[in-house]
Amino acid sequence: MALPARVRADACPGVFATHDAADGALARVRLPGGRLSAAQAGVLASCAEDLGDGSVHLTSRGNIQLRGLAPDTGELVARLSSAGLLPAPSHERVRNYLASPLSGLSGGLLDVRETVFELDRAVCARPELAGLPGRFLFALDDGRGDVAGEDADVCWRAVDSSVGAVLLAGRDTGERVPIGEAVDVLVRKALWFLEVRGGAWRVRELDLPAGPRLPTSPGVPIGPFTRDDGLTGVCGAPVLGQLPAADLRALGEIVVTPWRSVVVPLGTEAPGLVTDPDAPGLGVSACIGRPGCAKSLADVRADARAVMSRVPAGVRMHFSGCERRCGRPHEPHVDMLAGSEEYQKGMP
After folding, report:
1. What is the pLDDT of residues 161-203, one digit of tens each?
2. If we measure between CA atoms, which residue out of 188, 194, 203 comes closest to residue 137?
């Protein structure tokens, strides 16, 4: 059964249309496939230091947010544009693309890194697709089943080294197309959604036949990994998804994952990141809470930090300041809602 149509405006933030938070304006910078060059990382770090709160904040879609900004984002727009991070202003809020973060580095059936950039160019070339809701999500899965489990509206998932399945809202449509046609198929599916959506924001809100779900796998493993070429990279996670600007600059080229972690393609140095898979509290996340959000009932980040050392590795726990539960993970987790009995029992 279809979910009720949305009745309020889509207010997903971007850079041109920021969100007015209690700690200042919030800007979301879209990163196709989570990829960020060393030069772009340096620009974002400088923006965070000069214009924001001094940190970048990772999102559950592999993007980056800047907080504590002034209402006038003209300088921010200029800096990000010069770094190639705002290639299509008209489509800025709909450039939501996941791609398997380790694709082309380690494992997977094929490399989708260039395909995600082809998809971005194709979407931005269609003026009508600027009308997609800001929550509409594309995904390209290299066959390992990681981003295919992230509830993307339209997804191409490799089933062998050249052909992939087309998924709608995580469900297999039965269509199989080669990688060379993946971009065209995903664009056509997005155009179809615009025609039939009514007031819906997501494909899952439409009344569609429910196809099967293909097996999925968890996100990137934390710690060092051996690349297919024999070199070494590392995956790590900043505490509560917040990375100081100086650490971002030191990391250089990275891939931001939709699990608030980071892939460093080369080397094992990872300043600002937890790289021990057995570290307590590694699975703890939180919304921004007080004082950054006026709706929050508590400083949930301080509360989360207070209990992290007691949360065993492998346990997912999310702290929310209000019923909206911003940033909660898709996978099963302990729901720590400010003001609830569970929340009170979990505090020191």
Report:
1. 999 999 999 999 999 999 999 999 999 999 999 999 999 999 9
2. 203
Which of 298, 108, 320, 312 shows the shortest CA–CA distance to 217?
108
Amino acid identity of residue 91, one-letter, is H
Amino acid at 55: S
> Bridge partners of 178?
163
Q: Do the beta carbons of residue 317 and residue 342 sit within 8 Å?
A: no
Nearest to 155 by CA among 88, 200, 203: 203
How far apart CA 211 and CA 117 sit, in angstroms, is: 28
Residues 6+ positions from 180 with CB-CB distance below 8 Å: none
| DSSP of 109-178 | SS--HHHHHHHHHHHHT-GGGGGS-TT--EEEE-SSSSGGGS--SEEEEESSSSEEEEEETTEEEEEEEE
pLDDT digits (tens, 9 = 90+) for 234-279: 999 999 999 999 999 999 999 999 999 999 999 999 999 999 999 9
Strand segments (E) across the chain: 19-21, 24-29, 35-36, 55-58, 64-69, 97-99, 138-141, 154-158, 163-168, 171-178, 223-226, 232-236, 242-244, 254-256, 262-264, 284-286, 317-320, 334-337
Residue 230 CA: distances (Å) to CA of 50, 100, 105, 174, 226: 39, 19, 10, 36, 6
Could you tell me the two tokens for 240?
């509560």
**pLDDT above 70: residue 121:** yes
**Structural domains of the chain, with CATH:** 1-86+221-274 (3.90.480.10), 97-205 (3.30.413.10), 284-346 (no CATH)
pTM: 0.94
Do β-strands 334-337 and 317-320 pair in parallel, antiparallel, or remain unpaired? parallel
CA distance linking residue 235 with residue 268, whole number of Å: 9
